[in-house]
Write a structure and sequence with these properties.
single chain, about 230 residues, five-stranded antiparallel beta sheet, two-stranded antiparallel ribbon, about 30% helix
Length: about 230
C-alpha cells in the first residue's frame, strides 16, 4: 500500500505513514501522484510512479520474454525449409537452405530494427491537435463492399514538431480512442500502454502500463495484474 499524502510505500494494514505521519486508514485514502485527490479522482499532473520498482520489474520481465520468443522464432523458417527438403523430393537441400536463410534473415532484420527503435525512443510531452478517420482500402466482392479505415491522431510535441499515430481497423485504436483533441499527455515508449494524460480528473478509466487492462480511474492498482496505475 501507499501513503495518500507523500506516496511512500508502506506495509499492508499500516495505520500511519512512517515517513510523514499521515493516517493511512482514513476513508479518503487514495494515492494520486503529485497532486491531491478531488472527489476520488487524481488532480491534474503527471505521475511520479513511472520508476516504481514493481512497474520497472514487470517491464524488464516482459522485454526478456520477448527477446527469448524472438530468438526462438527467427531460426524457425530455416529449420522448416530444411525439414521439408528432407521429407520431400520437391526441394533440394541447397534451395531449402537458401530460402529458409532468407526468411530467417528478414525476421532477424525486423527484430534488430525493432530493438534499435525501442532503444532510441524517448519520453516526450505533447498535445493532441487533430484526429482523422479516412478510408484505407475499399474492395468490392460481387455484391459486397468492404471498406477498411485508418485512424490518425495528430499531436504537437513540446518544443515543436508534429507526430502522427496511425492505427487501423482490427487494432486496439489506443491513441484514437483514448486521446481527445486538446489533451496534454506524456508518451512513455517503454510501456505497453504508452499514453499518460496530464489531466486525469475528467476521465473514467485508466489503462495499466503493463498489461493494458482498462481500469476505473478510482482504482489504485490494476485489477488484472496488480501493478500500480499511473496516478
Amino acid at each position: 500500500m501507499f501513503c495518500s499524502n507523500c506516496g511512500s510505500q508502506l506495509p499492508d494494514n499500516s495505520r500511519f505513514c512512517r515517513n510523514c505521519g499521515e493516517r493511512t486508514d482514513a476513508p479518503s485514502e487514495m494515492y494520486a501522484g503529485n497532486g491531491p485527490v478531488r472527489e476520488g479522482r487524481p488532480a491534474p499532473g503527471f505521475s511520479d510512479r513511472v520508476n516504481h520498482p514493481e512497474i520497472l520489474a514487470a517491464i524488464k520481465k516482459s522485454r526478456r520474454a520477448a527477446k527469448i520468443f524472438g530468438l526462438f522464432i527467427i531460426p524457425l523458417p530455416f529449420i522448416g525449409f530444411m525439414i521439408y527438403s528432407a521429407v520431400s523430393d520437391k526441394m533440394e537441400t541447397k534451395d531449402a537452405a537458401l530460402y529458409g536463410g532468407i526468411v530467417s534473415a528478414v525476421f532477424l532484420l525486423f527484430a534488430a530494427v525493432s530493438f534499435i527503435r525501442e532503444r532510441a525512443a524517448n519520453t516526450y510531452d505533447a498535445v493532441v491537435i487533430d484526429k482523422k478517420k479516412r478510408i484505407r482500402r475499399e474492395n468490392s466482392d460481387n455484391d459486397n463492399r468492404v471498406i477498411t479505415y485508418e485512424y490518425i491522431t495528430v499531436v504537437r510535441k513540446e518544443g515543436g514538431g508534429k507526430k502522427k499515430y496511425t492505427e487501423h481497423d482490427g487494432s486496439q485504436l489506443w491513441a484514437y480512442n483514448y486521446l481527445q483533441v486538446g489533451d496534454k499527455f506524456r508518451f512513455h515508449p517503454q510501456f505497453h500502454f504508452p499514453y499518460e494524460l496530464y489531466d486525469k480528473s475528467k476521465i473514467d478509466c485508466i489503462y495499466c502500463v503493463g498489461c493494458q487492462t482498462k481500469n476505473s480511474v478510482l482504482f489504485d492498482r490494476c485489477k488484472q495484474c496488480g501493478l500500480p496505475l499511473l496516478k
